[in-house]
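Troubleshooting entry. The earlier prediction with (2R)-2-hydroxypentanedioic acid gave an output that would not parse, so I re-checked the input for stray whitespace and re-submitted. Clean input:
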Amino acid sequence: MSTEKKTSWTEVLKTHCPGLEISTEAAVLESHGCDWTRFRKPDPSAVVFPRNAEDVSNLVKVAQERRIALVPSGGRTGLSGGAVADAGEVVVSFDRMRRIIDFNAVDRTLTVEAGVVTQAVQEYALQKGLYYPVSFASEGSSQIGGNISTNAGGIRVLRYGLTRERVAGLKVVDGRGELLECNAGLVKNASGYDLRHLFIGSEGTLGLVVEATLWLVDPPKPSRVMLLAVTGLEGMMDVFRRFNDSLVLTAFEFLSDSAMRYVRQGHDLPAPMDTESPFYVVLEFECAEAVTEDLALQCFEQCLEAGSVDDGVISQSEAQAADLWRYREGVSEAITAFTPYKNDLSVRVSEVPAYLQDLDQLVKSRYPDFEVLWYGHAGDGNLHMNILKPGAMAVEEFEQICGRVNPEVFSLTRVHRGSISAEHGIGLLKKPYLSYTRTEADIARMRGIKAVFDPMNILNPGKLLD
Ligand code: 2HG
Ligand code: ZN
């Protein structure tokens, strides 16, 4: 976008949104103009910092009138380019909207502004003797508004579900600048379309979340973590079935041997056990009594006998549990320096071994020179495939090569009736491939919905849909 147009958008906002904090400082444009994806260069016109819902509503009204493109920005931990502003857009940061508004002990709800960091919600819930169970590696910087806009998942979906299940109510400013209040914390509400669920996971293309009421749950029971060396993919799912049938699993995660190598290198971690295996599982189960631990050890013995596992360790304290989690939770960060190309795929849980087997074959033949790591949430069917960039290769060339293989990866995903994005969203990077998971009719209806909420196409334009 031309410098004149950028300047004119900034001037319009300065004139028509008095009191709105606006920054055009190079460092702020750079930091707030992108998320964790490294495949686009940030180039926003300005970054604005509304302080409340009214500021957001005024801003959107002006933007609608003047056709100013807005990109909502939370903790910017996204991995699909959903919060990238690379075309002169104005970034709307929620960094100044971090108030905890209300806690209701009877309803067990917490109402917060969109910019509250996920971990702050978790900590507040614990202080009140309750629990906010959505948890993932970037929870220390991601914001609730962003979690809702991407329907964030993470490691405990198996037990507690996705962010969607936690949202009791939402206040959203749509693309017309109107503040919509969706569901107001009601458990039952059979009064027509539940707009709340349209906004959840819409990646900021229908409205800007300004406030959310979240359902909290009982505090978690004491738990144990096991790290197991599994003999293969069938073995991994055999372990899942046995443990899931006998215990209350709160997480069932996996990583490949190469992911294990990188996480150990990156975080200087010791070998978790003597045995080396093609895959490792990190599982967590509720364990309030000693007899539950015995049950887990019995499951482990059965898996050994069945040839599904070779070795394993079990935590005996919270500190040990946290240490075991690092092998799984630390992978993404450990490989950041290798500019990984990420595919975030999902199939039904029962389909994981067959799908992963087919994918692994495809990837080995199509990426003979690249290192490919696997890890993810095997217990809910979500696989993270990370292709590492060879050191000497330019980022553009690397992205092009991965882009050429994507159609084959996604065709295979379609054959296994899966999705091209499990939890990271479509954003910019996966937009060209949406039709591998959604039908033409689906996409046409999505466009229709977009036109209703955002008739001027000013909210995160070019993300998810063209
Ligand atoms: C995880 O599960 C995150 O660790 C990041 O969703 C996944 O790095 C990735 O591809
Ligand atoms: Zn994940």
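This one parsed fine. The longest helix spans residues 395-415.
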